[in-house]
Automatic annotation (TrEMBL):
The keyword Methyltransferase applies. PANTHER family: COBALT-PRECORRIN-5B C(1)-METHYLTRANSFERASE (PTHR35863). Signal peptide: none annotated. It catalyses: Co-precorrin-5B + S-adenosyl-L-methionine = Co-precorrin-6A + S-adenosyl-L-homocysteine. The lineage of its organism: Bacteria, Bacillati, Bacillota, Clostridia, Eubacteriales. GO terms for biological process: anaerobic cobalamin biosynthetic process; methylation. It holds the Pfam family CbiD. This is Cobalt-precorrin-5B C(1)-methyltransferase. Pathway: Cofactor biosynthesis; adenosylcobalamin biosynthesis; cob(II)yrinate a,c-diamide from sirohydrochlorin (anaerobic route): step 6/10. Belongs to the CbiD family. GO terms for molecular function: cobalt-precorrin-5B C1-methyltransferase activity. It is an enzyme of class 2 (transferase). It comes from the Bacteria.
Amino acid sequence: MALERYVISGAKKLRCGFTTGVCAAAAAKAATVMLISGKAVEQVAVTTPNDIRLVLEVEDASCGDGFARCAVRKDAGDDADVTDGTLIYASVRLTDKPEIVIEGGMGVGRVTCPGLDQPVGAAAINRVPRLMIARCVREALADGGRGGRAGAYIEITVPDGEAIAQRTFNPRLGIVGGISILGTTGIVEPMSTAALIDTIRAEMNVRRAQWAGPLLVTPGNYGETFAAQTLHLSGPAVLCSNYIGEAVDCAVRLRFEGLLLVGHIGKLVKLAGGIFDTHSRTADARMEILTAHAALAGASRAICMKLMACVTTDVAIDLLEESGILNLVMQSVTERAGIYLCRRAGALPAELVIFSNARGVLGMTDGARSMMDRMRRNMEEQQ
């Protein structure tokens, strides 16, 4: 049944869902109950890590020689989650040892890089879901009179997991073969900033486990492509989306040797105003910042008024070029953005490169070239 829990995002009321970890735990509990009782299970009750009780529908239940298998369908609520509607299966066998063993089968990813929640070689079933699966199975064993005497071997599978995983961050994280079984609270909050930031941190942990050298960070795919094709930085980049400040903070905590931020003028101009969350709902100020720097470069009132009326930074850049002050403005914007970046980074060396798709590099901080040279050497040494 649908979870009747909501959050407010802007002016919208959005329905919450539940995680793949909850699905796996519920399916494992249902399979254990069915294995002990020999009866079909249509619904199963579980309590999430944040103490919310859910009653979930059980699908595709079956029994075989010494095992039972059940599925629970992922409900992401109003979140744009590629795993929404996916069946998460658990197959359970009872054992004569008290241990609960949890493994991932078809469609569950396998960890290949250090730095993630699970060690290299393990199934990508995170710690909290593992604890929840074990707790739910132990509850079912106790309710069935098997508590303390029996254990269980549990295999989690996701039939479409390998295909779905290609639309997630798993390939970037070095998780192969399927999706991850995730969730710290058990509840999916639509458009969750915390979930996005957790993904950024996970990717940075993987990069840190691979090397400590300067880290390439970019808001999105355009920046990653520009870094590879124009700056010849072929190593992996961390995509930080709008959360530049969170990425810088994480790089500081992980003690990287440096950070190079590469981004489009439409994003990084905001940094010159001290804006580290560049989502438009948080702050815009692109034209205000460009206009202020144009005025410092000697632009007339008429030019400043035209700049304020520009809809995109590309149009504003063209106007600055026509006015003969583009280089002065970009030098000023880059310098100011660099000041804010270094202030946030503290002792961590931090440089930036600002570009546009039409004009290429528009500005870079003083130490950016030497940091890029160092990054290229590091990449060559690793090959």
